[in-house]
Design a protein that fits this description.
globular, mainly beta, 358 residues, 49% strand, 0% helix, four-stranded antiparallel beta sheet
Length: 358
């Protein structure tokens, strides 16, 4: 039986806000009105944006253009660039601080992790790193960060003391690093050895290496952090890990060469993009079964879910559009098909998006 509550949004209505889509070769951020399901504006930038971030307590969205190292503040009321900052030369990634007062920006050429305050867009701290960084992640408690240095290993950073610890050798190239939601355990993807390595965050001590059936190219938590899903080279499946139990549950076949993922919270679905076939497979997280698949466009490369869990937004890198899936219309059918709600042209090479209510 399906429970219907009085607070559920009526079928056919949209989301009261915008999707901000980074168009890499278009040198712009497309602002998609999710009530009208149409592009409201293209915000032009000086270079290619690859990432966007949206604090909840600010009327702004931030776009990063790595080549210039610029952070662009786009107001959500005027849909225009209000301010820019260049915290430390070329930049490869950014993440909001948990309290949303700053952006942490990774600068590989200068070997720094930089804190950019959002009140004045000023540099508040620069943490020197011992090697060229490739990836980073800030824990939910805001006290610790982890930085990966590729084949050199990884290190933990004390953000309160503004100090980077010693590099820990991993025996293989480090891909993504992620903290569990409780901030006590660091998860590192070892690409060369196809391992997931778990470390105790306070001490930096290794807890366990978990062998995987795929190279851990991409990681995605479910809504409460109790399950971790992994895709990568080596299998047409999604590896399911229970990180709090340090246990690999198994592998679920999902599409062809599955890539990027996103998870909804209610219902608990995992959306898995297959760039080669242009499909998205939908996995019921409770049963760990694929219940549906839908053709979405050419080379789906990024998926995000609206905050109300009503829509899954899929960016198609080659066809330059955004496929919209209505989560409530997805049901388990014998033919495992799911409807496509609409397609929205958004620009040239969309690669990242955030959704912001207004």
């Amino acid at each position: 039986p399906i429970a219907i509550t009085s607070c559920a949004r009526k079928p056919g209505t949209g989301f009261p806000g915008y999707a901000f889509v980074a168009n890499r070769t278009g040198h712009a951020v497309a602002v998609v009105d999710l009530n009208a399901f149409a592009v409201a504006r293209h915000v032009r930038l000086d270079a290619a944006p690859t990432q966007v971030a949206a604090p909840l307590r600010r009327a702004a969205v931030y776009a990063l253009t790595p080549e210039t190292g610029m952070v662009h503040e786009i107001r959500t009321d005027t849909l225009a660039v209000a301010r820019t900052a260049r915290p430390a030369g070329r930049a490869s990634g950014m993440q909001l601080s948990p309290d949303e007062s700053a952006l942490w920006v990774l600068a590989p050429e200068s070997k720094k992790l930089v804190r950019l305050g959002l009140a004045n867009l000023d540099v508040q701290a620069q943490i020197l790193l011992p090697a060229t960084p490739t990836t980073f992640h800030v824990a939910a408690n805001g006290k610790t960060a982890a930085v990966g240095f590729g084949a050199a290993g990884l290190a933990l950073i004390d953000l309160e003391q503004r100090r980077c610890g010693d590099v820990m050798s991993s025996g293989g190239a480090i891909g993504q690093v992620r903290f569990q939601f409780n901030s006590r355990t660091l998860i590192a993807a070892n690409l060369d050895q196809r391992l997931l390595s778990l470390y105790d965050a306070p001490s930096g001590q290794l807890i366990v290496h978990l062998p995987l059936a795929v190279r851990p190219d991409r990681l995605c938590f479910n809504s409460d952090g109790g399950q971790l899903f992994i895709t990568g080279e080596g299998s047409d499946g999604v590896v399911v890990v229970y990180p709090y139990r340090a246990e690999v549950s198994g592998t679920v076949l999902a599409g062809r060469a599955p890539g990027e993922m996103a998870a909804s919270g209610d219902p608990q679905y995992l959306f898995v993009a297959s760039p080669k076939s242009g499909d998205v497979s939908i996995l019921n997280i409770d049963t760990l079964r694929v219940i549906a698949a839908v053709s979405v466009g050419t080379e789906p490369c990024y998926i995000t879910i609206t905050p109300d869990d009503q829509f899954a937004l899929v960016l198609n890198k080659t066809s330059g559009d955004m496929a919209v899936l209505r989560v409530g219309a997805i049901t388990a059918k014998r033919n495992k098909s799911a409807p496509l709600f609409t397609m929205i042209p958004v620009g040239s090479e969309p690669v990242s998006a955030v959704v912001r209510a207004v």
